[in-house]
Design goal:
With 276 residues, the protein is of the alpha/beta class. The chain has 10 helices and 14 strands. A 6-stranded parallel sheet has the order 2-1-3-4-6-11, with helices on both faces. Helix 2 links the parallel strand 3 and strand 4. Helix 1 packs across helix 5.
Amino acid sequence: MKTLLIAGYGDIARRATPRLESRYTVQALSRRHGFDLDRPATLAELPAADAVLHCVPPPRSGAQDTRTQHLLGALAKGRILPARVVYVSTSGVYGDCGGERVDESRAVHPQTDRARRRVDAERQLAIWCGERGVALVILRAPGIYAADRLPLERLRLGTPALRAEDDVYTNHIHAEDLAAIIVRSLEVTAPGGTYNASDDSEIRMGDWLDLVAERAGLPRPPRIARGEARDRIAPELLSFMSESRRLANRRMKEGLGVRLRYPTVFEGVPRREKAA
C-alpha cells in the first residue's frame, strides 16, 4: 500500500483520513508525533511518502513561510520523492477584488502579511514540484465552517457587522466538503493545478452572520457603518471585513469532478435542536 504523509494533522486532515486509509498508509507529521516544522532537525527521520498532504499554516510572523521551506528541504533529502503534493492554501491570496467574480486565472494580490506568507508557500511549492516533476494541487479554501466551526462566540459577544451598503462578499466551504475535495485531489487521475475550493454561496458577511444567528437561536449582530468599524472591531477581524470577492468554483467541479454535499451555507449551517 502507498504511503501518505500528512503535514499538519488538524481538523480537516482528521476528517479526510478515514476516506484515505483504504488506499494509503497514513503517516502524520505533527508535534505530537515528534516532528516540528519550526525545528528542521526534527525532520531528519521524515518517512518516505508516495504523496504529501500539506495542511500546515505559515508562521504567525515574517515575510516567508519557513515551515514550507523546512518541509521541502526534508523531502528533498529523502530517498524517494513523492509523486503528488496537495497544499491547502487560502483564498486570501487574491486580496480585495471589489466583490468581483474570481477564478483561478486572476493574479494573486495579497493585502495582509498572513496572505503574503501563503503566496510564498505556493511559490515555493510550485518551484520545488516543477523542478522535480512532482504533481502539485493547490486548494485555495475560503472560510471553513461546520457545526463545531461557527462564529457563535462572536455573536454572543455582540460584535458588530457592517451595514448592507458597506458590506463585503464572503466565501465558504463546509469542512466535510473540503475533506472530500482533498481526497479527490490525492487520486492519481486528478489533474494538478490550482483550484478554488469553495461552495456555491453568494452571500455578504452580515447576511452570513444573520443566518448563523437565526439557526443557533442567537440575536443578530448590530450593523454599523464602515467608518465606525475601526473603533469597534479588532484589527485582525476587520481585515477580513475589508476584502470582498465571489469565488468561481467551476474548475474544481469540472477538473476534479467534485460534487458538493453542502452546495451553499443554507444547506450546511445546522438548526439548533429544540428542547423536547
